[in-house]
Amino acid sequence: MSWGLDNLPYGVFSRRGEAPRVGVRYGDQVLDLAAALHDEVFAAPSLNPFMARGHTAWHDTRALIQEKLSTDRSVTDAHLIPLEQVRLHLPFEVADYVDFYCSLDHASNIGRIFRPDAEPLLPNWRHLPVGYHGRAGTVVVSGTPIRRPSGQLRAGVFGPSTKLDIEAELGFVVGVPSELGSPAGAFEEHVFGVTLVNDWSARDIQSFEYVPLGPFLGKSFATSISPWITPLEALPRIPGRPQEPEPLGHLRRQGDWGLDITVEVWLNGEIVSRPPYPSMYWTPDQMLAHLTSNGASLRTGDLFASGTISGPQREERGSLIELSWNGGDPIKLASGETRTFLEDGDTVTLRATAAGRSLGEVVGTVR
Ligand SMILES: O=C(O)/C=C/C(=O)CC(=O)CC(=O)O
Ligand SMILES: [Ca+2]
Ligand SMILES: [Mg+2]
């Protein structure tokens, strides 16, 4: 079952007229945790206070919820609320937002498109997980409409982007802070769980502005996430793929943090791509190690995303700029229409599963 006892993602919900609070998804219902577990930490309108409690509390709480859901009828009858009665909110207060660039296939494709006369991979790419700081305040929950951004599309031209794109990504949510001046400790001590991310991107704004400081307004206008945060414990882990050259000591992998997750990209109701997470080059423990290797501290609520997930096949690409090769090879939809970049009214839905467990969906419609 996609939302069974082995899944149990956390979110923030409210019923009409009630204050938002923390719940866990079970089947097509939400378990009201403040009521079911008599713990005030779940009465907060965000997951941050619970996430700050740390790894042992996360593990014990999950075990308790599993036990109550499987044995305690009074809990299940009184505190499970049908999903159609609730509104889902942004599940945590986003502290900092960082976006990496961990897919070899995505980085190679983008290199070919943006820098056709150079080597597709820049010389640093295999030595560290390249990333940039995004904009935490514009991370929005699934369902939030996306306004087409305006910006400088080329020298002397300001106007609405004509190359509005998506990026199918996985996001990692930090629960436990780290100390300023020291690298973070073990991945599972800091990272609470994962969420699906659509990092909307305006490719015309991006390609004019990005030299030499990186993406700025082409990416900061909105980033959508799933209302559900899946705990690390619920995710099937697999070995990461081979890396050449061997990374420096501080970037060596801490264990098997490859994740067996497949994403689906839906455009106006049809699947246009299935990006495979196992094809990612840099693993999330390496992202965390790199992010804090200079002593930068983590805060509860930090979000770091993997970067666009693209596999080697065309139908595995996680962005429209790759799927349509920057507009030169339009995507043919079953409806008979074609697409290069997004048009007003288009709806994009990302869905993902990990060994049958749903990670939920991220939906956005362009306005
Ligand atoms: O290579 C570049 O110039 C920029 C590439 C990106 O679009 C960066 C990005 O958002 C990272 C990602 O999603 O993989
Ligand atoms: Ca991105
Ligand atoms: Mg963004």
TrEMBL record:
<dbReference type="Pfam" id="PF09298">
    <property type="entry name" value="FAA_hydrolase_N"/>
</dbReference>
<keyword id="KW-0106">Calcium</keyword>
<dbReference type="GO" id="GO:0006559">
    <property type="term" value="P:L-phenylalanine catabolic process"/>
</dbReference>
<feature type="binding site">
    <location>
        <position position="169"/>
    </location>
    <ligand>
        <name>Ca(2+)</name>
    </ligand>
</feature>
<dbReference type="GO" id="GO:0004334">
    <property type="term" value="F:fumarylacetoacetase activity"/>
</dbReference>
<feature type="binding site">
    <location>
        <position position="99"/>
    </location>
    <ligand>
        <name>Ca(2+)</name>
    </ligand>
</feature>
<dbReference type="GO" id="GO:1902000">
    <property type="term" value="P:homogentisate catabolic process"/>
</dbReference>
<feature type="domain" description="Fumarylacetoacetase-like C-terminal">
    <location>
        <begin position="98"/>
        <end position="366"/>
    </location>
</feature>
<keyword id="KW-0828">Tyrosine catabolism</keyword>
<dbReference type="InterPro" id="IPR005959">
    <property type="entry name" value="Fumarylacetoacetase"/>
</dbReference>
<dbReference type="InterPro" id="IPR036462">
    <property type="entry name" value="Fumarylacetoacetase_N_sf"/>
</dbReference>
<dbReference type="InterPro" id="IPR015377">
    <property type="entry name" value="Fumarylacetoacetase_N"/>
</dbReference>
<dbReference type="Pfam" id="PF01557">
    <property type="entry name" value="FAA_hydrolase"/>
</dbReference>
<feature type="binding site">
    <location>
        <position position="223"/>
    </location>
    <ligand>
        <name>Mg(2+)</name>
    </ligand>
</feature>
<dbReference type="GO" id="GO:0006572">
    <property type="term" value="P:L-tyrosine catabolic process"/>
</dbReference>
<feature type="domain" description="Fumarylacetoacetase N-terminal">
    <location>
        <begin position="7"/>
        <end position="91"/>
    </location>
</feature>
<feature type="binding site">
    <location>
        <position position="308"/>
    </location>
    <ligand>
        <name>substrate</name>
    </ligand>
</feature>
<feature type="binding site">
    <location>
        <position position="210"/>
    </location>
    <ligand>
        <name>substrate</name>
    </ligand>
</feature>
<keyword id="KW-0585">Phenylalanine catabolism</keyword>
<dbReference type="InterPro" id="IPR011234">
    <property type="entry name" value="Fumarylacetoacetase-like_C"/>
</dbReference>
<keyword id="KW-0460">Magnesium</keyword>
<dbReference type="InterPro" id="IPR036663">
    <property type="entry name" value="Fumarylacetoacetase_C_sf"/>
</dbReference>
<feature type="binding site">
    <location>
        <position position="167"/>
    </location>
    <ligand>
        <name>Ca(2+)</name>
    </ligand>
</feature>
<keyword id="KW-0378">Hydrolase</keyword>
<feature type="binding site">
    <location>
        <position position="101"/>
    </location>
    <ligand>
        <name>substrate</name>
    </ligand>
</feature>
<feature type="binding site">
    <location>
        <position position="115"/>
    </location>
    <ligand>
        <name>substrate</name>
    </ligand>
</feature>
<feature type="binding site">
    <location>
        <position position="219"/>
    </location>
    <ligand>
        <name>Mg(2+)</name>
    </ligand>
</feature>
<feature type="binding site">
    <location>
        <position position="199"/>
    </location>
    <ligand>
        <name>Ca(2+)</name>
    </ligand>
</feature>
<feature type="binding site">
    <location>
        <position position="206"/>
    </location>
    <ligand>
        <name>substrate</name>
    </ligand>
</feature>
<protein>
    <recommendedName>
        <fullName>fumarylacetoacetase</fullName>
        <ecNumber>3.7.1.2</ecNumber>
    </recommendedName>
</protein>
<comment type="pathway">
    <text>Amino-acid degradation; L-phenylalanine degradation; acetoacetate and fumarate from L-phenylalanine: step 6/6.</text>
</comment>
<keyword id="KW-0479">Metal-binding</keyword>
<dbReference type="GO" id="GO:0046872">
    <property type="term" value="F:metal ion binding"/>
</dbReference>
<feature type="active site" description="Proton acceptor">
    <location>
        <position position="106"/>
    </location>
</feature>
